[in-house]
């Protein structure tokens, strides 16, 4: 191709070099030009917002920024011998710092307890040939966050262990382990080795029960598939006043365990009002970050003291949002995987969860129950919500006021607290808005504030509801209702639709409601209950989006 204008090889090289040089100059000019354009646009943009001071600061910022971004393009005069890459020069972590880091990442690992006792760990056993305390390095982990036990008939994958001293529990203080077993109706015997701070010998007790967190009629009722369970061991009378440090589950009482879980017991002197638990987020390619900001702010306005997220895979923009709120202490994020042979490669896992609905539902019960047991002493109520659902009080401003008003109503019907208080589901479908048009006084990025058309009818009582669960009463939780409860069974008070509604923001109804969904679409009403929070919500969301750089760097430095 070069032939027509290039004959001798030396001339050829010179010519080529010349072209490269000219091309380089053109590129530099082009980049300069584009850069000036963006600066001008941005100045215009921020001036129109009347923020001339910050635009000045912004210009400076741009100049500093551009000196970075341009560096690789400008012909480099510096010799590589004088160049130094920017590395993280933080000194290496001390062991204490490492332990802290590991415990945050893997809260089920009793690392601090093990570390305090590791020097005399040879002493930790029932007797020389029975129930040795396992070295933390000999535990069998599965898919990062789980620990395993294999028996002659079934494998166990354990996620978390908790100390249950709830008054209504008739079996007395107990250790509850949240995990999965690849058996239905497991019959195999097992034992808990319960370890205490400052005690050499573990307490050995036979497992009291494997509580199935599922109904057989829902499907997946097959040997070999990992199923959700709460595994319970009663604490011996002699130790009712002590909090266990860790627990191992073993097939025979004297075995050296392949698992050892910290027994979590978060019991502050006083309870806060509301915690919200969100199952493992699976939004790898779906950038729901802005909707998530609106949801977190809305839920917080309504009175959630803290939101506990579990995270499978999320888009980097969602991570940005989660990190931001976690630093503020408003939310907490627990990393999560699927145990056993289930897929954990990000996109593949998403496909699996989409195609295998029953597996998805069974796996969801782990974060829900983990969240319940971790926080049962810290909050009066725990709600399990998805990030497209809001429990909206109709007459009150907050959840606290709502509960204060409906509790007397419920007590009038039956003079005792309920295991849960359920709220009826109603769909706010995406396309209902689009047949009406956007609202001009609401930014379009406020999904919920824009989507104020809903189906006229609620879904049927008890169907697709969400609850405020009473953690003093619940033993096993399912998405919509508790499955097992302490005291007088899983009583649930249906909160009337005049008091609250579960606003469910979706593109479409769940599959099982395909038929009714046609009617929902044909009979919609405008429902602006959420507009009571309009100003506050727009203000909070917009401020957060600016801070996080969603409107570009021009706004990021404003605060
Ligand atoms: C060790 O303890 C176990 C369980 O209490 C007991 O069955 C066994 O006899 C003990 N062995 C020795 C050597 O003391
Ligand atoms: C294994 O456990 C299942 C229940 O999960 C039971 O039906 C089966 O009989 C057991 N098999 C053996 C060999 O014990
Ligand atoms: C309801 O129960 C509480 C104690 O649980 C009792 O103090 C109260 O008197 C009862 N109220 C009625 C109306 O029975
Ligand atoms: C709404 O509910 C009422 C009463 O349950 C029922 O008669 C009606 O057919 C429902 N309408 C739609 C559109 O679903
Ligand atoms: C969101 O993701 C897109 C695509 O990766 C990226 O261009 C954008 O900068 C991200 N937004 C923020 C605020 O980081």
UniProtKB/TrEMBL annotation:
Superkingdom, taxonomy of origin: Eukaryota
Annotated keywords: Glycosyltransferase, Membrane, Transferase, Transmembrane, Transmembrane helix
Pfam (any one): Glyco_transf_92
Family the entry assigns: Belongs to the glycosyltransferase 92 family.
Coiled-coil stretches: none
Positions of transmembrane segments: 12-33
Biological source species: Neodiprion lecontei (Redheaded pine sawfly)
InterPro entries referenced in this protein's UniProt entry, alphabetically: Glyco_transf_92 (IPR008166)
Membrane topology: Single-pass membrane protein
Leading EC class: transferase
Protein name: Glycosyltransferase family 92 protein
One Gene Ontology cellular component: cytoplasm
């Amino acid at each position: 191709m070069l032939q027509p204008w290039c004959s001798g090889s030396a001339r050829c090289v010179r010519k080529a070099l010349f072209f490269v040089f000219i091309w380089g100059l053109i590129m530099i000019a082009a980049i300069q030009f584009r850069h000036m354009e963006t600066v001008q646009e941005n100045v215009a943009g921020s001036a129109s917002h009347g923020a001339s001071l910050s635009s000045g600061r912004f210009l400076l910022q741009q100049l500093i920024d551009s000196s970075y971004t341009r560096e690789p393009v400008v012909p480099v005069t510096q010799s590589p011998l004088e160049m130094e890459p920017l590395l993280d020069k933080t000194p290496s972590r001390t062991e204490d710092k490492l332990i802290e880091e590991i415990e945050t990442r893997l809260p089920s690992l009793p690392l601090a307890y093990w570390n305090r006792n590791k020097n005399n760990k040879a002493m930790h056993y029932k007797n020389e040939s029975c129930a040795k305390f396992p070295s933390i390095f000999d535990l069998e982990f599965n898919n990062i966050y789980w620990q395993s036990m294999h028996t002659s008939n079934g494998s166990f994958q354990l996620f978390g262990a908790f100390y249950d001293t709830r008054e209504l529990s008739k079996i007395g203080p107990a250790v509850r382990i949240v995990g999965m077993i690849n058996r239905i109706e497991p019959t195999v015997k097992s034992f808990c080795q319960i370890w205490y701070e400052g005690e050499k010998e573990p307490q050995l007790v036979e497992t009291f029960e494997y509580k199935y967190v599922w109904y057989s009629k829902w499907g997946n009722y097959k040997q070999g598939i990992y199923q959700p369970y709460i595994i319970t061991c009663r604490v011996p009378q002699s130790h009712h006043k002590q909090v266990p440090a860790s627990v191992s589950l073993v097939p025979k009482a004297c075995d050296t365990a392949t698992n050892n879980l910290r027994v979590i017991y978060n019991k502050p002197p006083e309870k806060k009002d509301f915690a919200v638990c969100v199952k493992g987020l699976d939004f790898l390619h779906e950038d729901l970050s802005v909707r998530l900001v609106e949801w977190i702010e809305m839920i917080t306005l309504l009175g959630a003291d803290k939101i506990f997220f579990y995270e499978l895979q999320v888009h980097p923009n969602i991570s940005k949002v989660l990190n931001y709120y976690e630093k503020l202490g408003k939310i907490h994020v627990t990393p999560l995987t699927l145990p056993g042979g289930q897929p954990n490669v990000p996109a593949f896992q998403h496909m699996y969860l989409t195609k295998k609905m029953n597996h998805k539902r069974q796996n969801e019960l782990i974060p829900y129950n983990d969240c319940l047991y971790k926080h049962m002493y810290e909050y009066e109520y725990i709600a399990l919500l998805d990030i497209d659902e809001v429990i909206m009080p109709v007459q009150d401003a907050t959840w606290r006021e709502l509960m204060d008003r409906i509790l007397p109503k419920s007590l009038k019907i039956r003079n005792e607290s309920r295991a849960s208080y359920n709220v009826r589901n109603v769909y706010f479908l995406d396309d209902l808005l689009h047949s009406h048009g956007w609202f001009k006084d609401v930014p379009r990025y406020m999904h919920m504030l824009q989507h104020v058309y809903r189906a006229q009818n609620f879904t049927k009582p008890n169907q697709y509801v969400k609850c405020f669960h009473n953690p003093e009463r619940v033993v096993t939780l399912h998405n919509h209702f508790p499955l097992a409860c302490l005291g007088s069974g899983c009583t649930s008070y249906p909160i009337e639709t005049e008091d609250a509604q579960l606003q469910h923001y979706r593109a479409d109804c769940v599959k099982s409601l395909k038929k009714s969904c046609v009617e929902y679409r044909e009979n919609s009403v405008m429902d602006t209950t959420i507009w009571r929070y309009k100003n506050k919500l727009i203000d909070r969301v917009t401020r957060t989006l600016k801070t996080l750089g969603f409107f570009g760097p021009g706004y990021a430095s404003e605060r």
